[in-house]
Structures are given as structure tokens and as C-alpha cells.
Amino acid sequence: MDSIPVTRLLGELGRGDETSEKVLLDAIYRELHRLAQRAMRGERDNHTLQPSALVNEAYMRMKSQLRHEWQNRGHFYAVAARMMRQILIDHARTRNTQKRGTGQRMEALRDTDGQFSCNPEEILGIHEALQRLAVMSERQAQIVELRFFAGLSVEETAVAMEISEKTVKRDWSVARAWLAMELGKA
User: Fold this and answer.
1) Is residue 127 part of a domain?
2) pTM higher than 0.85 for the full model?
3) Coil, strand, or helix at residue 11?
């Protein structure tokens, strides 16, 4: 992630500095677009929602929250990733893609150097399992969200969550195993 002072801009906006919003949007758009591209990497080619539209929708939903206190840029991007995930889930529900594959959903969570793919019908099953995981371990659920939906690397996830890379790797491994078991039941 680049060195643009996103944390400072978020703080200024939170204190009511109206001019910070335009500067902030210019500063974060490229990173949000990268997150959107990662989130949509596994989507079908003819998907009706494009990365730019996903960024715009996420930004519009987050706009009311921009004046809130943000811990840091990692916190901001984690919320953005969660918002994009919710938009994709809403879109999948709207498109009536609740059809589930037969035992192939867990392939989407296989770790291949940060490259993930997911069929549209898999998103809802993973989302539902992730909600159940969050009840048991919010941190593990957040790691899956950042790694899978936002496509962040282990290093980026550790920075965003302010935990060690070792903890990210351990929780990512445990969460994937638990999700594989859960998704195998469906």
C-alpha cells in the first residue's frame, strides 16, 4: 500500500474538514479499485457488476461513515472490503444465484499466492459459513474476509489487523479447515 496519508485525511474529515473528502477520494480510489478487482477476480466474465461500479457503490455506502473515527488506513480498507463483500452478496442474492455446487466450494478458499477464485453461486454459501465462523472467532472471520474477499496478502492482512504474520497464517489455516468442514455439510 502506498504512502498517501489516508489516516490523516480520515482524521481531518472526521473532525469536519469538508475539503478532505475530495483529497481522500483521490487518494483511496486506486486502492479501492484494486480491492474491487481482487474481490471480483473469480466472478464470471459476463458479470453485470464491474469493479468500478463496485467501488462506486461501496464508496456511496461508506460515505455516511466517513465522518466517523477511523483507527488507521487498515481499518478503513477492512471496512471497505467488508462493504464490497456485502455488495457482492446482495448482488448474488438479487441475481438468484443461490444454487450451490457439489463439494467444490472449498476450492475457492485454496491459497495460491493470494490468487482466489469463486463461482457466483459459491459466494452465498461461503458468506453464510463465514457468519457462523464469526460467532466463534471474529478475528478468524475477519482474516478470511480480508484474504478471500479483499485479496490481501498475509503481510497486508497483518498490517490491517495489527497482528503478527504468524497469527494471520495460523488463523487462516484454522479458519480454512473449519470452513471446509462447514461447506462440506451443505
Assistant:
1) yes
2) no
3) helix
